Fold this sequence. Notes:
Blueprint: E1 2-6, H1 18-21, E2 30-31, E3 34-35, H2 36-46, E4 53-56, E5 70-73, H3 79-93, E6 99-104, H4 112-122, E7 129-135, H5 136-142, E8 151-152, E9 157-160, E10 163-167, H6 175-183, H7 188-195, H8 197-204, H9 210-221, E11 225-230, H10 242-257, H11 259-273, H12 276-312
Parallel strand pairs: 1-4, 1-6, 4-5, 7-11
Antiparallel strand pairs: 2-3, 6-10, 7-9, 7-10, 8-9
Amino acid sequence: MDAIVTAGGIPNPEDPLYSFLKGDAKALVDVAGKPMIQWVLDALGDAKHVKNVIVIGLSPKNTLTCKKPLHYISNQGRMLSNIVAGVKRSLELDKKSKYVLIVSSDIPALKAHMVDWLVEESMQTKDDLYYGVCAREVMEKRFPESKRTYTKLKDMHVCGSDINVAHVRMATEHLDMWEQLIGNRKSPLKQAGIIGFGTAFSLLTGGLTLEDAVTRVSQRIGIKARAIQWQYAEPCMDVDKPHQLEILRADLAKAQRNPARLAERFQRNERGKASAKPKTAAKKMKKTTAATMKKKSGAVKKVAALKVARTKFKPKATPRRR
């Protein structure tokens, strides 16, 4: 699967990050000694399910590196136009391409195993769009000071992911609707209003579950969508404000100083995800082991008893006659 990385945004003076960038692209802001986008490219380069990486809005002169083939497209001026251009390039590289990853350049905490998890989880079904969400408790456990914007649903509070999977035909269908939704991506209420008044009202009053929201979006646009619930906060932790930039700078600098701790965190997360199934297996193994030990113990006792019996009833030797 090819990855399309959107990196063409240059903040204007009203943007909270403007003072950090000095007129340069947001994707190139320094995060723990690397351009922010380089962290994303490192994750995509190490992901086993990524074939090509298409960067939109930068050029080879930015001296970025990636373990996967790297392709550049100039900024097309609008987010949707950039994504459409990326999909077209993916189809040029492989006409059989069906799905693409759409990745923002401002999620530097992204890791390769998270990318692979998303691809594997998404490809269990054949839908048109896979949109990731992260529950508030997951985000705030990992980044307690992140101060994300959450959408209030009936069953949870969520924020959106900045890495998603889409079928390539999404680049040719319903473009007007996508333009409006992408243009209001920072305002869930405005997005709901585009989908319909009933959806906006339900969202405003907290009357929609996550499943309800997905169903309404699918019906309104005419696609098959599926929500992917992240167990990791990193793909949803984007850099929009100075305090978020400082959080990720500190977090990644710390990880560089102590890579063992980062590996330990990953292993702990993996153990947590798999804890439900192993419990049953462990319980079963425990029972089997106990039964086996019981059998062995019984067998040992029988052998011991037999030895005692043989000793007890052993006939006395008859003295020899001379």
